[in-house]
Amino acid sequence: MADSTIDPAQLSESQQLALGTYTSVTNQEPSAAIPLLRRSEWNIQIAIAKFFDGEAPDPLQEARASLEAPNPPTQRSHRETVQNGFASRRRLARSSAREPAPRIVPQPENQTVYRSPLVLSILFTPFSLLYRLVSGSVSFIGRFFPFLPRLLSGLLNRSPQSRSRQNIAGRRPLNPRDNAIRFAREFEEEYGSHNLRFYQDGYAQAYDLAKKDLKFLLVVLISPEHDETSSFVRETLLSQEVVGYIDDPRNNIILWGGTVQDSEAYQVSAALNCTKFPFAALISHTPQDSTTSMSTIARISGPLPPSAFAARLRTAISRQSSALERVRSTRNEQQAARNLREEQNTAYERSLAQDRERARQRREAEAARLRAETEEKVKLEAAEQEHRNLEQWRRWRAQSIPPEPAAHVAGASRVSIRMPSGERVIRKFEASTSMEELYAFVECHGSEPSEKTTASNPANYEHCYKFRLVSPIPRQVYSTDGGTIGSILGRSGNLIVEPIDEDEDE
Fold this sequence. Notes:
The protein is α+β, with helices and mostly antiparallel strands. It has 18 helices and ten strands. α1 packs parallel to α3 and α5 crosses α6 (85-96). The longest helix is centred in the C-terminal third of the chain and has 93 residues, at 306-398. The protein starts with 12 loop residues before the first helix and ends in a 7-residue tail after the last strand.
């Protein structure tokens, strides 16, 4: 006996794959799916067929049980049979009231294959050869006498049964969904407008829906050839009492109907052992038999009054509702547990995503901080290097500034310069001295050349003056390439040093 509480993690990889495929198709819980897969030797096709069609008893297990069971004495067995005769009859009657309801997938008539047993094939081989010889001869003669085949077919088709078969065979076969729609349309055309809601799909689809949603499937089969069909439909099936009971959503009834003129309805009638029309069968999931079984819990053959028809349905449904309610409650609990696990997983994934986002933001903030520190460090190093190069350039340039002319030198220009600090510097320059030398004097003011060492021009450094010399009245700006001091300022000049901002255009 299989343990239904086995952990799926203990299964092998192939068994876990089969379990996942089976549960995705049947939507069954693993606790109920694992024993069924074990009984099916982990064959997915066999397990799915058992789930939808119902699980028949295993002949191998029955044979083993019969071999292992001890044989009781004949007299005692006879005595027990006599004593328990009535009990066995009651069990037989109780089991016959609930027959397995198979799942029928209709097979088109043009694809039906009939295979006779091998012994009959051998016995009828001479007759088959004779029939082929005679039919070949008749067809050969019919080429010369065309009226003979029509005459023979007319004589053979005079019987009512042959005409009935022709009428049925002449009905156009459709797929299950279109067949259900055609039946509903023809039903309304024949019996007028009504409130019955027939399921607009095949029997197998209605069967699966009733099994999945734990509803009752009411199958109604009619035959237009029976005289009682019209009175049954008009007086019983379309009565207010029956229609109100079937359409009541509290009863959970799925109504599927068909006419035996269609292939699908005929196959359903044969599977449900229908012997009299009109016929109705109530099918439901029977958990007391197995977790996948579907059984016929009520059969109604022939016409009945509306009250009796509704009473039969009401009795069968009330008898089976408690079992379905237990299964429905169990499924709801399992679904609630599944939803809770999904919510927990969703909350965990959301929390994990938030943690990952916060970690990403921390990494980005740390990277931005390190990048800012690196940039600031580079700027400071660049500023320090700029300052060192400027000081070295000042010492180097101060070495080449010509000295101030003596007092007796004629033609010298006397220049008064007001520094940014407010200090005023007065110095004489030769008239031929360029304006660039005057800018260099202002730049190097305060940087005296060393007498012990000689400074050199810094490598890869191009000096740029960050001030300008301006004459106040009238205001005039003098550049470094403006000419000589004598030609621009004359014998004397009064200048102001104006710093140039970094954002100001030169």
